[in-house]
């Protein structure tokens, strides 16, 4: 059974939006050094394409997080892979694939702020404000998405469909 629906963002639309966001980031940081922290795995395609358009010196680091329910059915975020780089006093850009409720990224931002970076900004491929429960600034957004589940361009359903060149609706 094919669960893929209509194309939400084409390969060309993604490319154009990533280049536009890269221009905004270049203008903002104006050749200052930047550490980009990508949350694995969904943002890896976005990271790869975005960083090829950045002009400032960059370093890359990754976070891998797991979200589980505890015995009281509350969400618990754990770090499967934490930072390797020291971000204290540095400009940091957190790169995410999708910002939905904001709960997980809020937890990640709090964690990163504990290292006292010089600046901490958020860049997301997709923003789904219809799901938002926690408000915070998103400084760079490629697309404000409809409230649907999507796959492709790094986004998956059970580890499948990440390699699609476009972002496509997925019907579970």
Description:
- A six-stranded mixed β-sheet has the order 4-3-2-5-6-7, with helices on both faces.
- β3 and β4 (75-81) form a beta hairpin.
- With 172 residues, it is α/β, with parallel strands linked by helices.
- The chain contains three helices and nine strands.
- It has one domain (11-150): Rossmann fold (3-Layer(aba) Sandwich).
- How many separate domains? 1
Mean residue pLDDT: 93
Q: Might you state the CATH topology name?
A: Rossmann fold
Lateral arrangement of strands in the main beta sheet:
4-3-2-5-6-7
Secondary-structure element order, N to C: EHEHEEEHEEEE
Helical coverage, percent range: 10-25%
Largest sheet: 6 strands, mixed
Evaluate the radius of gyration: 16 Å
Distance between the termini: 11 Å
Low-confidence stretches: none
User: Helical element count?
Assistant: 3
Would you state the CATH class?
Alpha Beta
Q: Brief description of this entry?
A:
The chain has helices at 11-29, 44-51, 103-113; strands at residues 4-9, 34-40, 58-69, 75-81, 91-99, 119-127, 140-144, 150-151, 167-170. It is of the alpha/beta class.
Task: Provide keyphrases for this structure.
9 strands; six-stranded mixed β-sheet; alpha/beta; globular; single chain; 172 residues; 22% helix; three-stranded antiparallel β-sheet; Rossmann fold
Helix and strand arrangement:
Elements: E1 4-9, H1 11-29, E2 34-40, H2 44-51, E3 58-69, E4 75-81, E5 91-99, H3 103-113, E6 119-127, E7 140-144, E8 150-151, E9 167-170
Parallel strand pairs: 2-3, 2-5, 5-6, 6-7
Antiparallel strand pairs: 1-9, 3-4, 8-9
């Amino acid at each position: 059974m094919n669960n893929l629906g209509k194309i939400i963002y084409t390969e060309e639309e993604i490319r154009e939006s990533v280049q536009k966001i890269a221009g905004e980031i270049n203008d903002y940081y104006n050749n200052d050094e930047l550490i980009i922290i990508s949350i694995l795995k969904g943002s890896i395609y976005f990271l790869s394409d975005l960083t090829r358009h950045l002009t400032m010196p960059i370093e890359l680091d990754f976070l891998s997080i797991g979200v589980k329910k505890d015995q009281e059915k509350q969400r618990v975020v754990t770090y499967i892979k934490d930072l390797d780089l020291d971000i204290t006093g540095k400009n940091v850009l957190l790169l995410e694939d999708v910002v939905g409720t904001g709960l997980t990224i809020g937890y990640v931002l709090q964690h990163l702020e504990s290292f006292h970076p010089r600046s901490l900004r958020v860049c997301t491929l997709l923003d789904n404000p219809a799901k938002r429960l926690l408000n915070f600034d998103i400084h760079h957004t490629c697309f404000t998405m409809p409230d649907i589940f999507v796959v492709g361009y790094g986004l998956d359903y059970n580890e499948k469909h990440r390699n699609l060149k476009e972002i496509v609706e997925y019907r579970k």
